[in-house]
C-alpha cells in the first residue's frame, strides 16, 4: 500500500484509493485499478514485486503470472476502449536480487531455471537475453537502450493498438519502476 500512496501523492485530494474495495463491496468483479482520479478519469494499477524464501529453501515469487496477465489485459482493454493516456499499470521492485525472474514468473514449465516464456518476456522490453537457449536466469536489464525511454511493446497477440512501457532505473538504483501506458 505504501507504494500506492506514494504514486498517488501528487494528486493530493483528487485521488481515490481503490485498493481492497472489491473485497469490501463484495462485488463479483475485481476492481482493476488502485488509484482513480475522477476529475480526469485517470486509473492506475500498481504492483510491488517481492520474493521470499519458501519452506523448501528456494526463492519464490509473490504472485502467479496470471495476476499480472489480468493487469496487462485490463490496461490493454482500457487503451482499446479509447482511454489511452487515461490508464496506467506501474510495477515497482527493489533491485536487490540476482535476476528479475526471481521477482516474476517469466519461465515456461517448472523448475528453478526454466526456459523463458517468450510471450511473457515481450511485456518487458527492458530485459535482454545474455545466452541462447535462454533460461530465466539468463536475463539482464538493458540499461543502455531502454532506461528512461518510452518503448513500444512488440507483441500482444491479436491486439493492434500502441502499448508503451517506460523503464525507470539504473545499475546503481535501489528501486526500479516499469510504467505501462
Structure description:
The chain has five helices and 13 strands. It has a seven-stranded mixed β-sheet with strand order 1-2-3-6-13-12-11, with helices on both faces. Strands 4-5 form a two-stranded antiparallel sheet. The chain has a two-stranded antiparallel ribbon with strand order 7-8. The longest helix has 16 residues, at 65-80. The chain has helices at residues 2-8, 21-25, 65-80, 118-121, 143-146, and strands spanning 15-17, 35-37, 42-49, 51-53, 59-61, 87-94, 107-108, 115-116, 127-129, 139-141, 150-152, 164-168, 175-180. The model has no long low-confidence stretch (mean pLDDT 85). By secondary structure, it is an alpha+beta fold.
Measured between the Cα atoms of the first and last residue, the distance is 21 Å
Strand content: 25-35%
Structural class: alpha+beta
State the helix count. 5
Total number of β-strand segments?
13
| Coarse morphology | globular
Largest beta-sheet characterization: 7 strands, mixed
Uncertain stretches of 5 or more adjacent residues: none
Share in helix: 10-25%
Spatial ordering of strands, largest sheet: 1-2-3-6-13-12-11
Mean pLDDT: 85
Order of helices and strands: HEHEEEEHEEEHEEHEEE
Radius of gyration (Å): 17 Å
